Amino acid sequence: MRGEIKLISVIIPCYKQEKTVVSNIKKIRNVLSRLQYAFEIIVVVDGKIDNTFKRAKTVKGENIKVVGYSNNYGKGYALRYGMAKSRGNLVAFIDGGTDLNPRGLQMLLAHFEWYNADIIVGSKWHPVSKVKYPWWRKIVSKTYGVLVKILFGLRIRDTQLGMKFFRREVLVKVLPRLLVKKWAFDIEILSVADRLGFKRIYEAPIELDWLELESHVSKNFFRSVNESSGTVTEACFSSSSLNRSTFLGLRSAGVLSGSIRLSQERL
User: What's the pLDDT band for 238 if we cut at 50, 70, 90?
Assistant: First the structure.
């Protein structure tokens, strides 16, 4: 494997999860504690509009950090915020909530090592995934997958599932090129990574028990497609001026200021 795994950073974006955030953090910590690697957990509360931040802070541990901000900016912003504060040379994220079984993190890590990957994506459509999903959600997900393949040429069947692993080198090169949006983060980061030559992107099995009350994807399906096609096209297909123009645009908008920069010094 390219480079020894020294530290795994796991980002948990949370929004309006005051009832489940404590148990989720503890479950994820229990899974990570069984690994052979050191780890840190970074909980990002995407808008302090309820008691999610306060309750998350009650979970104590030297390797647990809870951060947040007043307004709700969306998943993409929350993940970039957490990644900028991470120290690991392997960075993962898992969506807050109870839909995804956190034991999938172990499976994704095993696949990461086996494939010597750049990115590992948790996938509902992996042959051995265990998924409890209503039929109409399957149609929506499959349709989205077809659109993603047509628009962006990705070989990944499930870009949107909220569990992924990234080599830090990938994030250092990709994040400055992204346009932070609420719903398009997953497809955007995968498409830009692929465009930049990080081709070792593979899928791994997960366990998902879908809960309607905690899922927001269906409400934002077409919005996500629209944002994805716009932001990824802008970021990916102006390769000669990709770094400079996108970086300057983000910087002028304040997106890359302060705490959202990802330093290469931590590699």
Answer: very low
The token duo for 65 is 């950090």
Could you read off the pLDDT of 42-61 as tens digits, one per residue?
999 999 999 999 999 999 99
What is the secondary structure of the chain as a DSSP string?
--S----EEEEEEESS-TTTHHHHHHHHHHHHTTSSS-EEEEEEEE--SSSHHHHHTTS--TTEEEEEESS---HHHHHHHHHHT---SEEEEE-SSSSB-TTHHHHHHHHHHHHT-SEEEEETTSTT-EEE--HHHHHHHHHHHHHHHHHH----S-S--SEEEEEHHHHHHHGGGPPP-SS-HHHHHHHHHHHTT---EEEEE-EEE--GGG--TGGGHHHHHHHHHHHHHHHHS-GGGHHHHHHHHHHHTTTTSGGG---GGG-
Q: Which residues of 17-30 are buried (b: 16+ CB within 10 A; e: fewer)?
A: bbebbbebbeebbe
Q: Is-contact 221 187, C-beta < 8 A? A: no
Map out the domains of the chain with their CATH numbers: 8-261 (3.90.550.10)
Query: What is the mean pLDDT of the segment spanning 107-124?
Result: 96
Q: What is the pLDDT of residues 14-45, one digit of tens each?
A: 999 999 999 999 999 999 999 999 999 999 99
Q: Residue 132 has which token pair?
A: 């409890």
